[in-house]
Every structure is written in structure tokens, then in C-alpha cells.
Write a structure and sequence with these properties.
Residues 251-276 form the C3H1-type domain. With 309 residues, the chain is α/β, with parallel strands linked by helices. Helices cover 44% and strands 11% of the residues. Residues 48-80 and 296-300 have low confidence and may be disordered.
């Protein structure tokens, strides 16, 4: 009897010591209800209730979300790895420097402005290619300004010199444009230059497509590096999408018709008319297809009607 009652109250979650004390006080023949009342009077609680009463370290989290500690870790990883979503940048140093110097002086300050602009956006892979002979002192036929910037960028592993040497007093220069396009193509990055590299486009069809789609042109406005907001034209991607590996698609918005109510194209107009709420935005080809399908369907219905008794 003692063992059966002990097992019964143990299943309810009460401790063995409390059960034994109650049974000693009330006797082995005490009813289960009396034992339960005495356990409650003593303040004994089942282990399940005690575990609920204790403050838990776990917190309730909304469905579909993560707990606090992993969430904070992932947020930190997203912030630290934000550069993984940005494309590598390969800068044509000669083109940028000559553009900043108005095609008269090789201005190294222009290269620094371009590098700083991409750094502020969060790009970590930035490479600038400049011919090796630009290390030589400035001359009248090829003046160089702020040449110390090249040394600083080289120490930061940003600037790369393309090979050049002198043979019998003549300078032999390797084609730096080939380095620029090749590295940008292999890294799936962006070329920063106002040069179109037409000779390299004719060499390789893959390079042709890459140069057409990944060439970022720019302008200098009062010592400010300014690439266009629409690098591939009005109907192309924005600058943010152009420089990111995972572009954010924006919703398509209808452009209002420039002629307004004076438009004579009717439903064939490809622009949006606010005064026509039920305007069918169909192309001419789609309208012709729709007109062809209607009589065919009517003919089939008439045949079915004639065949039916």
C-alpha cells in the first residue's frame, strides 16, 4: 500500500521526501484525497509547476523569427559581410587621372577621389591599374601631379603597376587595358573608365558583352567623383543595382502620356492615361490576337449548339 501510494504521487510530480512525511503523519491507511490535501497544505508543489514558476532563460519569439542570440549573430554577419553583395571595382588609373587633370596633367588626386567614393559605399575589393613608368619623375611632355598618392595606394595594396621597361633607350609598355578588362572579367566586377575598349571588344566576344554591360563611366565636378545614376541608360538598372551582385527589382510604374487628353492613339497608346481608368494596357499584337480568338470561339459554340439535340 505504501509503495503504490508513493508511486501514484510521484507520477503527479511530488517529491518522495514530502510524500513519506505525510504518510508518516497520517498513517499508511490514509485516503489519497487526505494525502493530497496535506501535501498542498505543506506547500509542496509538483516538479512541473516548480519548473514553470522558475524564471526561464528562454524567451518567447514570434513565429517565423529566430531567438535573440542567433539573430544578433546573423545581423552582425550581415553587417560585416555587406561587402559580399557589392561587386569588385577595377579602376583605369590612367583614364581617371587624365580626366581629372583635363587631359593635360596626370592628376593622382583624381584616382584618390574615385577610390574614396567606392570605399564609402562599402566596396572592399578595389584595384587601380597604372603603367609602371608613371613612377618616373614628372616631365614637361608628361606632367604628373600629387605623385605621392601612388605610393600610398601601393602600400595599401590598391594600386597595381603594369609592367614596362626600356630597351636600347626606348620604353616598352605592356597594354594596361588588357589587365583591367581581364581582372574585372575574372572577378565579375565593374570597370571604371570613360574608355570603350573597342579593340578588346573585337578580340573576344565574351569581353565585348562584359564591357558593354559592366563599364561605369563618370565625371568630375569640382573635385567630386560622380558616376551616373543610370549607367546603362534610362531604361537600365540604377547605380545601386549596377554595383551590387543581388539587385533589388523595383515595381513597374506606368509613365504618364506626354500628350495627356490630346492623345489620338486611343487604347494603342503605350503610356498611362489617368482619365481612362479601364484602359487596356495591351500592345497592338496582343489586341490582334485577342480579336482573332473571339470569332473562332464563337464558331465552336455554334457548332456545338447545332450538334446538340
Amino acid at each position: 500500500v505504501h509503495q503504490s501510494k508513493l508511486d501514484f504521487f510521484c507520477k503527479l510530480g511530488y517529491g518522495k521526501q514530502d510524500i513519506c512525511k505525510v504518510l508518516e503523519n497520517l498513517g499508511q491507511e490514509a485516503l489519497e484525497d487526505d494525502v493530497l490535501k496535506e501535501l498542498i497544505r505543506m506547500g509542496s508543489k509538483p516538479q512541473a509547476l516548480e519548473s514553470q514558476a522558475q524564471p526561464s532563460s528562454l524567451k518567447l519569439v514570434a513565429r517565423g523569427s529566430c531567438s535573440t542570440s542567433p539573430g544578433s549573430k546573423w545581423l552582425g554577419e550581415d553587417e560585416s559581410d555587406a561587402s559580399d553583395y557589392l561587386r569588385p571595382i577595377v579602376i583605369d588609373g590612367s583614364n581617371v587621372a587624365m580626366s581629372h587633370g583635363n587631359k593635360e596633367v596626370f592628376s593622382c588626386w583624381g584616382i584618390q577621389l574615385a577610390v574614396d567614393w567606392f570605399r564609402e559605399r562599402g566596396h572592399t575589393y578595389i584595384k587601380v591599374f597604372v603603367p609602371l613608368w608613371r613612377k618616373e619623375p614628372s616631365r614637361q611632355d608628361s606632367p604628373i601631379a600629387d605623385q605621392h598618392i601612388l605610393e600610398e595606394l601601393e602600400k595599401q595594396s590598391i594600386l597595381v603597376y603594369t609592367p614596362s621597361r626600356k630597351v636600347k633607350g626606348k620604353r616598352v609598355v605592356c597594354y594596361d587595358d588588357r589587365y583591367i578588362v581581364k581582372v574585372a572579367y575574372e572577378k565579375d566586377g565593374v570597370i571604371v573608365s570613360n574608355d570603350h575598349y573597342r579593340d578588346l571588344q573585337n578580340e573576344n566576344p565574351e569581353w565585348k558583352w562584359f564591357i558593354e554591360q559592366r563599364l561605369l563611366m563618370y565625371s568630375f565636378v569640382s573635385n567630386r567623383f560622380m558616376p551616373p545614376d543610370d549607367p546603362l541608360g534610362r531604361h537600365g538598372p540604377t547605380l545601386n543595382n549596377f554595383l551590387s551582385k543581388k539587385p533589388v527589382l523595383r515595381e513597374q510604374k506606368w509613365q504618364p502620356c506626354p500628350y495627356g487628353k490630346k492623345c489620338t492613339y486611343g487604347n494603342k497608346c503605350k503610356f498611362y492615361h489617368p482619365e481612362r481608368p479601364h484602359q487596356a494596357q495591351l500592345s497592338v499584337a496582343d489586341e490582334l490576337r485577342a480579336k482573332i480568338k473571339v470569332p473562332l470561339s464563337l464558331g465552336k459554340e455554334e457548332e456545338q449548339h447545332n450538334l446538340s439535340p
